[in-house]
Amino acid sequence: MDLKLESSLWVGNKRYRAVLTGWHLKWTEVDKKNRDKKTVSVPVAEVVGVEEGRVEILPQKSVEDTDKDFTVFYVKRSSGGGSGGLLWRLGRTQFSCPSRVLRDQWTKHLRAALKTHSPLRPHRLLVFINPFGGKKKGRQIYHSLVAPLFELAGISSHVIVTERANQARDHLLKKDLTGFDGVVCVGGDGMFSELLHGLVGRTQQEAGLCENDPAVALQPCPLHIGIIPAGSTDCVCYATVGVIDPVTSALHIIIGDSQPLDVCSVHHSSALVRYSVSLLGYGFYGDVLAESEKHRWMGPLRYDYSGTMVYLSNRSYSGTVKYLPADPLLSSPRDKTRCLAGCGVCSRSTERLFPHSSDSGSLYSSHFSQFSTDSEGEWVSVEGRFRCLSLTCMSSSCARSPQGLSPSAHLADGTGDLILVWDTHPLSFLKFLYRHTSTQDQFDLPFVEVHRVKAVRFSVPSGREEQEYEEIGGLSSETDGEREHVDTVSRNGSQQHLAERATTNEQKTATPFLCGLCCKKSPAVSVWNCDGEILPFTEILCKIHGQLVRLYARGIEDRAAVHNSQERDECRRMCIPKSLT
């Protein structure tokens, strides 16, 4: 143990023995007989900042300038009240020293320890605020809760309040990003998607890679992404942190946590359509999103209403699914494990995905040679009628579904989980849906299959896709302005194909999508729900890119492990003195 500094300090009217080592700051209460009592231990990596004097940051900053005092701010954990992760709060302890010289010695050593043991902390961030997302409180959340914490940690930020859709994406694709350590979005999953597309697209442009080719090994993004939740849906934040809480997310950003994340690229007709990280769903999930678009005036309630109506329509769809299985010896979607902070499966996958730092694409070059050779040797094909099918690169857990779509999915193992729900009785399908809200195994049903995969292809019976724009409400073949389209934009020599939805008043009043309830004829095809966006294609090809981006997060913390660690520290401090008495 490399001892840095030790002395007696006062907290209020109690005397403490404070010790700063290379990795921890500890202060132990000492009674009048010089016996140790309660000890508080904080990892240096979780110290947020050190200030001279008596300082308060939240709810508003106040400073009492005193010569012999200093204040330490650090991460303090508390239960979130649900089954997810732990809430992080800003802990604060004010220390009093016998002299100003000792005070200056403590602040100097603490700041030096932060620089030494927290090299990944960001110093300059580019922040995008969506003022229209969720309850339209993005500005308030950032300026009242997040900005004071960034200032305390010495982080400078350039803030952009977006005024239109895809403004953040376009900025990241075109503007100079030199000097920024990371990019932060204050918003929901839609805002995160903009940052994802902008950063991934920018990285491939600079690397001279073609995103449209699914056989290409995409270059991992050098900049981290931070998420301050402030949207209608915050699935990515929940699945990577475990709670929807702006302060918790801000503290993860400040201490420089780094969580790699797999990304799924979606292709159609030799063109990139979109990137996905949480849900790519067809059938029920696509129908619910398409129906909910007509009821945006209802707010979040539109999802409950649309889900009920689509369920009652009792639809299923024909299709052929081909998938490239992942190695079953590495992990399984039915192995009952959870991807938590420090996940062993994801850690081992990092070594497998990037065996040499100079050859990060070697895995993809070998795994996806099938795309260029059209070899079908390893692909598995299934055909039939499905209630729904979905592909996810994470558990996709949320407050309503704590276990998510696939409870054992991993954030960074280079695979996705393909869930096939075959046509079945409505009550059986309702049982499947209900199990997402409980701890019951939604895969333990005879009409449900789940596979861990590296790639997926989906197609419909010949002739049915042509009916898509005529049969799905809101899409008309008579007026070009009413149809969904794909923008192909040239950006520094590379092309980014992104599905853009063109919505008009005529669309909103078109033939209702609920054909199963109010029409005799049901639609022949559904639509794809790609992270909350409708794709205008039915036949797609999906490929999983392992650890393509990194978030300022560490995965969901295991409450039991954190609690046991704290108990072991307490036992180590308390039991030894008792044994000597």
Short structural description:
The chain has 581 residues and is α+β, with helices and mostly antiparallel strands. The chain has 16 helices and 25 strands.
- Uncertain parts: 358-370, 372-376, 469-516, 567-581
Q: Helix/strand/pairing class, anyone?
A: alpha+beta
Morphology call: elongated
- In the CATH hierarchy, the third-tier topology of the largest domain is known as Tumour Suppressor Smad4
Domain count: the total is 3
Oligomer: single chain
Number of strands: 25
Q: Helix count?
A: 16
Report Rg. 26 Å
The CATH architecture designation of the largest domain is Sandwich
Q: What is the straight-line distance between the termini?
A: 27 Å
What CATH first level of the largest domain would be assigned?
A: Mainly Beta
Please report which band the strand proportion falls in: under 5%, 5-15%, 15-25%, 25-35%, 35-45% or over 45%: 25-35%
Helical residues, percent: 25-40%
Main pleated sheet = 10 strands, antiparallel
Overall pLDDT score: 84
Protein name: Ceramide kinase-like
Domain DAGKc: 120-270
GO biological process, one term: ceramide metabolic process
GO cellular component, one term: membrane
What does this 3D model show about the protein?
This is Ceramide kinase-like. It holds the Pfam family PH_CERK. One of its GO terms (biological process) is ceramide metabolic process. GO terms for molecular function: ceramide kinase activity. By secondary structure, this protein is α+β, with helices and mostly antiparallel strands. The chain has three domains: 138 residues, PH-domain like; 138 residues, 3-Layer(aba) Sandwich (Rossmann fold); 251 residues, Tumour Suppressor Smad4 (Sandwich). The chain is built from 16 helices and 25 strands. Strands 14, 15, 16, 17, 18, 19, 20, 23, 24 and 25 form a ten-stranded antiparallel beta sheet that branches. α2 packs parallel to α6, α3 runs parallel beside α4 and α7 crosses α8. The longest helix is centred in the last third of the chain and has 22 residues. The two termini are 27 Å apart.
